[in-house]
């Protein structure tokens, strides 16, 4: 007897949302007073708006389904994983960008994003599109700490810093914008060596966060990056299917990341770090899209959905879809809000169980 996959998936999502709503209402979640975010476009809520870079999204149709239809600089039609995670912990519904002039330390006290679309662990990745390198994100965080201490006092600021949840989401751009496009890194590293190079940077970054008082950290692994619409489009000789070479690189990176996190937890006595590996859930959506209510996974909602992102993504384009909930991807590189919600709901129970 066949399974009604759409019904099962819909029921699962409904039950997950109900459980999360109950958990969010619990006072136990108040143990996490803030969400501090580092990373790339998966968690950039508008920091690139202030940069001289072509990688921006502070215009329509980005933000079409965000609060008030406002294009904030999120590379999505709506909210990001960091927004959903902050909501699940009972902190707030959206995480503001550190460089957004409409916000101040009063807003940042309960959470802030230092992320920059297009960046990576590798400084050379950030340089490609003139975005914020990871070391500068950390410098901005140090500035934030000083401002927080001035605003709420040293004792309370140190409490917030020590109890806050830290999110790190990086890596995809290092491979797809850098390693596989430009020859410099390939001439110095094999893929495995480049994975190790990136993870050595991740290790140092976590150690620096730890020295600055961070204790609760989760690090996002890589998703099946060979299945992004842009990668399918340029995979001409592979008949536009997923590029499995890239997916295997992501899997290998995630395995090494898990080992690194285990090592860091043993080495740093007060650290509580976990991986937020979304590979399986994203791959399942790609493999069984109808089970999640999707009609299209091989191309995106915006414009033709094959190569467009940033300024090429236009709501004037007659091909831009009317219902992004039928699409897994919003532009050729970034998921829709619906996808981010499903992925976040997959990760949140583990995060709540670990950090409450």
UniProtKB/TrEMBL annotation:
<comment type="similarity">
    <text>Belongs to the 'GDSL' lipolytic enzyme family.</text>
</comment>
<keyword id="KW-0732">Signal</keyword>
<dbReference type="InterPro" id="IPR050592">
    <property type="entry name" value="GDSL_lipolytic_enzyme"/>
</dbReference>
<dbReference type="InterPro" id="IPR036514">
    <property type="entry name" value="SGNH_hydro_sf"/>
</dbReference>
<feature type="signal peptide">
    <location>
        <begin position="1"/>
        <end position="21"/>
    </location>
</feature>
<dbReference type="InterPro" id="IPR035669">
    <property type="entry name" value="SGNH_plant_lipase-like"/>
</dbReference>
<dbReference type="Pfam" id="PF00657">
    <property type="entry name" value="Lipase_GDSL"/>
</dbReference>
<dbReference type="InterPro" id="IPR001087">
    <property type="entry name" value="GDSL"/>
</dbReference>
<protein>
    <recommendedName>
        <fullName>GDSL esterase/lipase</fullName>
    </recommendedName>
</protein>
<dbReference type="GO" id="GO:0016788">
    <property type="term" value="F:hydrolase activity, acting on ester bonds"/>
</dbReference>
């Amino acid at each position: 007897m066949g399974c009604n996959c759409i019904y099962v998936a819909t029921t699962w999502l409904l039950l997950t949302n109900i459980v999360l709503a109950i958990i969010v209402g619990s006072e136990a979640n108040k143990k996490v007073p803030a969400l501090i975010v580092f990373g790339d476009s998966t968690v950039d809520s508008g920091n690139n708006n202030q940069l001289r870079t072509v990688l921006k999204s502070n215009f329509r149709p980005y933000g079409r389904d965000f609060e008030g239809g406002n294009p904030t600089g999120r590379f999505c039609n709506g909210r990001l994983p960091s927004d959903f995670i902050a909501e699940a912990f009972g902190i707030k519904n959206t995480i503001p960008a550190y460089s957004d002039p409409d916000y101040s330390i009063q807003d940042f006290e309960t959470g802030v994003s230092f992320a920059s679309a297009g960046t990576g662990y590798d400084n050379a990745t950030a340089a490609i599109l003139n975005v914020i390198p990871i070391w500068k994100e950390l410098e901005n965080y140090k500035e934030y700490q000083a401002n927080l201490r001035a605003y709420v006092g040293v004792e309370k600021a140190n409490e917030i810093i020590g109890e806050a949840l830290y999110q790190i989401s990086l890596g995809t751009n290092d491979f797809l914008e850098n390693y596989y496009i430009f020859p410099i890194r390939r001439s110095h590293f094999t893929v495995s060596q480049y994975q190790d190079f990136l993870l050595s940077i991740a290790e140092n970054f976590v150690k620096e966060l730890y020295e600055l008082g961070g204790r609760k950290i989760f690090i996002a692994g890589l998703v099946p990056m060979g299945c992004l619409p842009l990668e399918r489009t340029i995979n001409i000789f592979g008949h536009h299917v997923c590029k499995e070479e890239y997916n295997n690189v992501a899997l290998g990176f995630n395995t090494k990341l898990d080992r690194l996190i285990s090592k860091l937890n043993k080495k740093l006595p007060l650290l509580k770090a976990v991986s937020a590996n979304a590979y399986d859930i994203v791959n399942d959506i790609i493999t069984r899209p109808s089970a999640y209510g999707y009609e299209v996974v091989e191309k995106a909602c915006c414009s033709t959905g094959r190569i467009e992102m940033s300024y090429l993504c236009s709501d004037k384009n007659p091909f831009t879809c009317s219902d992004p909930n039928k699409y897994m991807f919003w532009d050729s590189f970034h998921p829709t809000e619906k996808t981010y919600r499903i992925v976040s709901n997959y990760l949140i129970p583990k995060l709540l169980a670990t950090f409450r």
